[in-house]
Structures are given as C-alpha cells and as structure tokens.
Amino acid sequence: MKNIRIFRISLLLATALTVGSCEKALDTEPFDKISEDVVWSTKANAETFIFSTYGIMNNLAGGPSTDARTTNLLAFDGEYNGPATVFNERVDRNADYGFNNWGAIRRCNMIITKVAKSPGISEEDKKALIAEGKFLRAMSYYSVARNIGRIVWIDRVLGPDDDMMLPSTGSPAESYEHIIKDLEDAVKDLPATKDRGRANKYTAAAMLSEVCLQALAYQNYPQAPNIDASNPLLEKAIQYANLVINEGGYTLESDYGSMFNDINPNSSEIIFAIYRKAINTASHNTPMQNMVPNMSNDQIKRGNGSPLLNSQIRIFEAWVQHGPTQNLAQDYLVIDKANPNLALPWDQTSQYKEAVDEMASIPTSLIPQANGEASVQSGVIKPGSSETVWTLTNMGRDARWSASILSDSSAQFYGETLTMGVQGNASRWLKMNGYAYYQSLSNMYWRKGIYNNVSPRIYVGIPTDYHYVITRLGRVYLNLAEAYLLKGDLTNALAAFNQTRTVHGKLPASTAITIAEAWEDYKRERRVDLTLENDYYWSLLRWGRYGGAANHGNAPGGTIPELTEVPRVIDISKNRKAYSIVEGSFFGANNVRIFDPSRRYLMPIAQSYLDRNAAFGPQNPGW
Q: pLDDT digit string (tens) for 453-462?
C-alpha cells in the first residue's frame, strides 16, 4: 500500500510536479506562481492540487472534537470553553459553525472542471480524478450539513460574471441529496486501489453507509422523519455497507488499540485515515499534548501520593485538558463470573453483588469529598471478600477498556505505573488540593490515540508521526446494524454489531431478544467502539431524531437524555476497598447540561451571512 502523506503545502513547493513541468514554470514570469495549464497538464500535476485539497478531511477528524459536547469526557481550560457553550445552551444566532466552506468547494469544483478539460490526462484517469473531486466536495458539504443542515450548493467554478448571491438549499433533505449523489458517483468511478490517506471506492461507500443514516434522520426537518422499513435511504445504507464488507478486503482488527497509535497505523481495518509525519508534526500539533498529565515527584510527594516516578527525566510534562468520565466507563461491560455468557455493567455483575456493601458509610479519611460535589453511588468491599474495586472494574472487562482508558494501576505507560485512587500519583486530588494543575479531573486518562514511541517524551516540539482514523470496517458494521434496527430486522442487526463486540471487545455476543434491548446494546457498543472518533454526538442527535427505542421511548425530535446527564467521576480509596461516584461542577459548569429540542438538532446559520444575503435564509428553527 502506498502512503499518501497529507500536508498543508503550497502549490509552488509541491514535489509531485514533474521535473519538465517545473522547468517550464520556472522559465516564465511571474516566478512565484505556477500557471493553470501546467497544473492540469498531467495526472501527476493534477494530483498535487488534489492532495493539497485533502485538508477537507480534517473536519471529520477525532480527538476530543464533538465528544467534548457529551459526557464521553470531562474537560477544563481551553478544551472546555467551546463545547461548554453548546451543552450549557449559551450559543446564539451569531455563532458560526462552518456555513462558509466555499473556498474548499471552489477547489473541488476546479478539480472536477479542469481535469475534465485537460488534454494531457487520459479518459480513464479523468474518471477517477473527477470522482475524487466529488468525494472531497461531498465530505466538505457533509461537515456543514451535520452542523447546520443546509448548504450553499455550488457545482461549478464561479467567475466574475456569476451571480454571487446564491441561495442555500431549502432543507437538510435537499443538502443530503446532493451529498449522496456525489458519493454515489465517487463509488462508481473511484478505483479500488488502497493508497493510505487517499480515498478509494470503499472509502466513499463507507461514508455513504453513514451519510444515508444521517440523511434519514433529518428528513422532513423539523417534523419527524419517515422511519419506514422500506425507506430507500435504509436500503442504500445497507447496500453500501455490504459493498465494503463483502468486497473491500478489510478485516476487523483483533488488537483494537493498535489502530490508533504507532503499533498498527496501517491496520487492515482502516478504510481512511489522515496521516501526519514527524518531519512536520510535533507532539503539540496532536491531541496527545492535551491528553497526557504534567507531574513530578516533588508534586507527588507534596500530595502524599505514590508511587514515585522512575524516569530520570520529567517524563510527564504535557497539558492534559480532558479525561474519560465514569459515564463512559460504565458502558465498558464486564463478563459475569457466575454466567460467562453474560456481559454486564461492572456494578451489576454477580461478583460485584457478592462483594460490595452499597449501604456502608465511607469515612472521609478513606475518600475525601470536595465542596459542591455529591456522591450518587458508593460501596465498600465486604469483610472476608478477596475482591477489590480494582478486580471488579478490570477483570474480565471489555478489551477496549484498557486499550482506550488509563485507569487506576493500568499497564505501564511510558515506563511508569499511574495510580489514580486517593493519594495516587496521578489522581484528581493533586489538582483539587493545589499540588499540581494539569491532572485529569476524572481520575482517568486516555490511552486510545496515544503513541508509545514519542522520544524522549510527549512534549512541545518533540517530533512524532500521528494519524486520525476517519472511517474503518468496525464503523461500517455499526452503520449496517443501525440500518437493520430501523428496519426491525433483529437477527441481522445483532449479527452486525456483534462483530465489533466480540472481535474488538472480546465479549460474549449480545443476547438481546427484542428490538428495544438490541437498541440498548447497540448504542453502548457504538459509544465504546467509536469514542474519540467524532461520532457519539452526531449519533445521539440522529437517534433523537428517530425517537422511539433509539431514544428511550421519546417522541422523534424530543429531548436526548444523554445530553442532559451530568458527568460523573469515580474516587477509589487507597486500599481499593471502597469507592464513591460523584457529580459536581468540576472546575467550570460541567454539571449544567441543557438540551433544547426546539433548536439544538441543528446549529444556526450565522446571522452575519443572512444579513449580507437574504437568500441564505431562512434561519434554522429556534435561532
């Protein structure tokens, strides 16, 4: 497989230009530009322009991204500010959520138009390059449609004589019609060749399987969508998911975590990823900088923490801004000891019920409690039990747990053992008590998306490769499962999402016997499999639009409980014999979670655009 490295490069410096073309360009004036006839004269030159247009895909990348609008993570400082305006319902109609993507669309239209007219590119190559332009155009519009619903559809290169007062689409449904048409054209004409960082027909098909679900959810907006088993969008979602599964040659990764770090960035499960190289990428250019703590032995000693760190250098000196919540952790199931064919939340297993007394009081000498925080659940290991909170939360747990989250005494991380219980060396209490600042508020840190080989440490200016997984086979299986659930096909839905549950999670298959039970298992499965992949927020909106079993029995377009729940944190005593789950404001207004269904399913078109061009309107409902 080839490695297409996606960089932000200027056309002048692009290395893909042929030597002869470069000489011609440099023999003419002006010397700081390359003429269009050179750019579009050959396939290689055109590809240079295309490669530099792939920045469009950054809008779909993960990291904290839209997960920060949910209780997947607990954020503070800079990572908190933007998402908090959304979940606190402080967004107003002047907010700009990306309506203006017209520069990116112009580049896509130039690819489509100029390639078609090029005398130096073969007809076969033209088909593939034009399809690539349509794929990128669809992806740019998709990032707008998910946020705002309506787009300004432009399918040609505009010139000085064109009317620039263009209208927006009349509805989200119309927006998605354009996006789906572009993606279907891309599936038809893109090659099957797998070049890393570059779209092929299966990339387009994978995205189609998801776009069709999103389009279905926003049919008839703001009225309820038509969730009918025979809806053509469901058929398309299934068709394109099966195309990828049956013909793409991709396989599910048995070592789940390896897909997201240096161990296996080229996993056969990955359908499309953005690849960055160390030559122009440093730790602080990646999400890792805000996922790793900043701590020293002096700070640990002042907080009476242990163990001390072994490294001869300050191995942890990043700026952690967010960590996983107990809300998310709760969805990583544990295999029941009494019935190994059953996987349950850790506090519902037979081993938990036998070992824990939830009525016992816990002295503050074991687990302190901060002002403004309230315990919502607690427990103490019963006398005589050999269990600990650690064994109950780790033994037999979903394999994605340790691959995604660093919890108390997880496997070594950069040569160190991190302890996150009370008086641990990386607990939130170092921050709460003022001994250290950049500590996770949740007593957990992210493992997913953290490279193991950044040398000597993850720190400002330290070069590193990095990649963002945009879509993969597991995601396609989950899209397929959702389509079957909407059709009421329990058998095929279970078969689809049990793929990720058993291969990635190493869990027994779901035993759901009703559609409602299957929806519950599916939603949990999608959450843990795609966490930090810019999915959960959009999926919650989609499920809320469906209503019914997809959203706790609520009417379509109703309140989404997951977006009104507040984040939770688990504190574990030093001896691991007691725990307390707490809620609080957590250095901000993290406990203010509001969802206004009259407007939050779509963000506003920034009012400044409407003021300049009334044809962009009307404003989205509720704004």
A: 999 999 999 9
